[in-house]
Amino acid sequence: MSRDRAGMSRSRTPRGVVKALFASAASARRQRRDDTAFMRQTTAAAVQGPRHFTHWILWSTLLFFILAFSWAAVAKIDEFTVAQGKVIPSGQVQVIQNLEGGIVSEILVQVGQVVEKDQVLMRIDATRFAASAQEGEAKNRALLARVARLTAEAGNAEFNPSLQLENQVHKLVAVERALYLSRQKQLNANELVLRQQAEQRRFELGEKRARDAQLQRSLELVEQELAMTRPLVREGVVSQVDVLRLERQASDLKGERDEARLSARREVFFDTHPVTTPAKGARFHTSRRLPILDAGGAPRYLLTVIDDVTERKLQEDELRRTRTLLDTVVENMPVMLSVKDTKEFRYALVNRAAEKLFGLTSEEMIGKNAAELFPKQAVDTFAILDRQAVETDGVCVVNEQVVETPRNGTRLVDIKKFVIRDAEGHAEYLLTLSEDVTERRRAAERMSIWHSMTC
């Protein structure tokens, strides 16, 4: 009994329990193997069951997946990729450019240097820009001076530019002040002329109205006399001739009255004056004003007609400049120039050289012919040459012609005459070019005498 208790105590230990389990399993297998020999194959397979190592495969597979997922959850793996690439910054490439252009005077950064926002990278030479800025400032000051002058002229005030502007552009302010004074004088003179013209027009209008009243009164008296005379004609006291005379007198008075009234309404013309317009700038206008009278003869409205004569004014100015240039050229020609009409051969133009050659002024010669200025011998010579030049279609040339001048003695003159014809081909003017060769001829004679004496 004690032996059995000892065996039971040993079997209650874990090792004993495991051994007992394995022993019972082994005896069962031996028993099943022994029994399966007498069973059918299907029943024997069901009794034997699966082989014991198949359970280990399943458990091993399950354990593998558990370990794999656990490792994948906690493990870290470094990945490396080898390939060709290009580094692209996150922002676009910044291009430094100056809109106005210029010359770089200083670069303040180095290659590879990290820069900050609003950091100065380089400096550009400011010479050209400073010159442009100074030019702009000068123009601005000049315009300010002009604005001050125009403002003073428009407001009829004194020209008083600011002290700062006068200190900065003293010369320009002086020029604008001189121009202001000149324009004020011109304005005052024009205003005085206009006032005088207005006063004269008022005086003339008063005269016309007085004349109209006088004629109206005379007409009324004549009509009364005519009304009193007509009954006398029927009675034979007055003849019909007297009535006709009164009627003619009444008609004449009506005509004179109507003429006086029309002349009182005549247009008032003003000279051409410059006007500055907002759209076209400076223009030249000619204005005409016509008073419109009411039934009582008093002025009620003023009709103004303005003509733009800018183009005509510019053409006249250009023609005036051309005439001035032509007069200057003609006056300073080294040879004598004179122009005569072909009808009576009276002088229409002479230059300074002609005055010197003949010893006469242009005022003394213009409008007169040769017979009124020169001795008879010179008159005959000029008459022959003038007729010859007009009759021939070409140039009349005479060398070393002897001319008796009124106040310069006898001169030797080379003469060329040209005929100036009008649009229809008729001879209108005779142009004469003369050169005094007296001194040259005398010098040649002296040289000839000296040469003959030396030889």
Uncertain spans? 1-11
Q: Strand order within the widest sheet?
A: 8-7-11-10-9
Tally of DSSP β-strands: 11
Our count of helices gives 13
Structural class: alpha+beta
Mean pLDDT value: 77
Note the run of SSEs as H and E.
HHHHEEHHHHEEEEHEEHHHEEEH
Alpha carbon gap, first and last residue: 200 Å
> Nearest-angstrom radius of gyration?
65 Å
The main sheet comes to: 5 strands, antiparallel
Strand residues, percent? 15-25%
Shape, per Cα inertia axes = elongated
Measured as a percent range, the helix fraction is 55-70%
Summarize, please.
The chain is of the alpha+beta class. The chain has helices at residues 2-11, 14-36, 41-48, 52-74, 127-154, 163-168, 170-235, 240-264, 310-331, 352-358, 362-365, 376-391, 438-454, and strands spanning 104-107, 122-124, 268-269, 273-277, 281-293, 299-308, 336-341, 347-350, 396-404, 410-421, 427-436.
How would you characterize this protein structure?
- The protein is an alpha+beta fold.
- It is built from 13 helices and eleven strands.
- The strands form three sheets. It has a five-stranded antiparallel sheet with strand order 8-7-11-10-9, sandwiched between helices. Strands 3, 4, 5 and 6 form a four-stranded antiparallel sheet that branches. It has a two-stranded antiparallel ribbon with strand order 1-2.
- A hairpin with a 5-residue loop joins strand 7 and strand 8.
- The radius of gyration is 65 Å and the shape is elongated.
- The N terminus is likely disordered.
